[in-house]
Amino acid sequence: MRLLGVLGGMGWSATAEYYRRLNEGVDARLGGLHSARVLIHSVDFQPIDDAENAGDWDAMAEVLIEAARGLQAGGAEGFLLAANTMHAVADRIEESVDIPFLHIAKATASRVEASHQRKVGLVATATTMAGDFYTTPFEQRGIEVILPEEGQRPEVDRIIYEELVHGVIKDSSRRELRTIMRGMADRGAECVVLAGTEIGLLIDEDDCPVPMHDTTAIHVDRALDWMLTEG
Q: Which pTM value belongs to this model?
């Protein structure tokens, strides 16, 4: 089993979910008393969030590059970034180290492509929805991305940063996201991608009117394949 580096802490609830899912996945695949070989670097989220809000991608990249290099120095044979939004600087992080980087959007786009779905609804933070760093892997595969209505996007961002990042689950927020996903389906989305690593803590398949792709689950599956079956 390869040693996987997890660059986490953005927020901690998502990192905890990754750790749980990785271990459950190893248990399901190998049985016995096997558990995941994982090295976690959990950063302080506040300076990264401050950099994001200021549009200071250099500052964000600097923190995450240092953490990625620490994972490599600690013996990680490959790593992932346990946060969708911070993939805004993923290329710079990947270039800074000499170990494989498992990209969440690329893994998700491949899963959607394999499902033969050509139009996807994207639920994510404002930064993710506004940038092309996440949509490009879909567009390269000929998949159209549909976003929530412009007036709905701040509420999605608020739910993620003010509630889910802190592990807070509210029925009112679940209802709001149900309405947003239904609206995207009405506009032609054949599936919905939960492109916020914490959203799966609030939403499950019964909440969505079309098939749903949880990026955290997909990312973990990709990591398990790399840890256990590749190379």
A: 0.90
Q: How far is CA 103 from CA 48, 85, 109, 210, in A?
A: 19, 12, 10, 25
DSSP of 130-178, one letter per residue?
Answer: H-STTTHHHHTTT-EEEPPPGGGHHHHHHIIIIIGGGT---HHHHHHHH
pLDDT at 198 over 90: no
List all residues 6 or more positions away from 93 whose beta carbon is below 8 Å from its beta carbon.
7, 61, 64, 65, 68, 81, 101
Helices (H), the chain: 12-30, 45-54, 57-73, 90-95, 104-114, 126-130, 136-139, 153-158, 171-186, 215-228
Q: Please state, in angstroms and rounded to a whole number, the distance separating the CA atoms of residues 99 and 104.
A: 16
Give the pair of three-digit tokens for residue 150. 């412009």
